[in-house]
Structures
1.
Amino acid sequence: MFDLIETDRGGVLTFGEFVDITSTFAPFEPSELLNFFFFVLDQDKVGEVDIKKVEHFIYLMWDHVIISNLTEGVEFMKTLDSGDGRVKYRDLQKVERRYPSVFYPAQRLCMHVQKFSLGEGWWTLKKIEIKEAADAKKRMEALKKNKQRADMQAEQDKLNEEMLKKKMGMNYYLRFWERDKARAQIKKIEQINKNLEEMEAKILEEEKKKKKKK
């Protein structure tokens, strides 16, 4: 957390830095804590971490106190190694679900931060407030996307109608009963083009992933 706020005062925090750390760390739920620690351990940001590094981190959290569940959890984590000596975030999720006590010290630290900084009750209400604000933001984004889609569709429909007029010529007015059939053909062509664009985008994305792996 100190690295994230880029403090470089040799062990001394300003009040602002203390607030940044506390307000970031205290609202974490258990799953968010796990996500945060994986983010910290995955320094190269490649989506996987050396299993020995994770094991060292776990024992460091426990101050090298060995309990049976801890040992079993670490051994279980090792079984998730596909042979390259590395684990992914989903592997740690499996460990946490099966052996929740493995990451308990991190959760305890979070609870202590809450308790000694404004109190657990205050942070409980704050987390509700944060969630409501996040949900409201998602709803607004969804409404904007829906409006954008509707505007884009209306524009596309307008273009399709112009195309229909050009295709039918005078028959657009003289043989108006044939408009629906012609519209259906244009829609079919539109869908084919859309499918081709999606396929092309998928191929490009797969090529990017292959390049990253290399």
2.
Amino acid sequence: MGRQNDNPHVSIKPEEDARLPILEGQIEREWGNDRPAYLKSLKVSGQFQKQVHETALSCVKVLHQYEERGLGADQGREAIQSLIHPQWDRS
């Protein structure tokens, strides 16, 4: 049998995870503050919502992996920051 999930905020399927819309909002805010040129280029190209959603989904998948391994929430948050703000994007 599969692993039972005890956290009510976490779905077995990342696409249904309750944290997904929260992360999308966080990504929109952070990109608006830290990456305005990138945000503008996404909006101009019509890729904004798609890219935000895909990034949030990647974050949720990483959080699932950390939880499955029994690693701490702080480590998971650090890992998703590297997805939200890739190394090449930092100044």
3.
Amino acid sequence: MRPAIRFALTALIVLISIRATCGKPRLPQTYPQQAIKFTDEVRFHNVSITWDGRHYFAINGGNEDYCDLNEYDGHGRLLRHHTMKLDGRAIFYHPQYRKLYVKTYSQDLRRVELAQERSELALDHVFADDNSSPGFAPDGQRIYELAEGTVHVYEFKSGKELKSFELADFYDEGAYARALAVSEHYLFAWTSEVKVGVYTLDGEYVTQIELPRSGYAVSLSYCNGMLWVAEDADGKTDHAEGYWYGYRL
């Protein structure tokens, strides 16, 4: 075979190989490494965390009269404390609207106005479960809610349910059965108190991640390229220290 022909065939094989793998999502590590830990002092429970590109925002749940929404820098240093009248279950920063949204203990989604420390109704009676902690697609297009073993997929803008599917092998135990986190390519749901199942965005089981510690059930979150869980403060009406742990996948 002539050198020129051999070179052309080799280049073609390499090109085909690159095209076959380009854009294919990387599988998460099954034993992820902790990348960050910081203290989150709240009343009641540490329930959810999000990232706006510069700051983390963590919200608590348990009582709407004692709601803490704490703002941190990228190293987990407290910047500001915001007092809100929300019983939070999940918080999300929408990159297009540049707003924070909170799913409360209800079937509603509320839009947060930090400067005024207030919130407005964004979606009314959209969720299937009062106590669920849904995951939000990082691009802000869809919301994924796990309720009684079914994942409901909603359009963010309208709240319209686009589809639903059953999730296999999730941990069907109390609040663990109501928490879902979402990355660009995967869904994350508890399969035990220390293990998290990884699924495609259509609910197909992929693998399982084992965390170094158990986390508060509804705290399961995904933001800034990390999977998060919290060690619960359980602060009652007095403040107490909880902790957030972020794991690189």
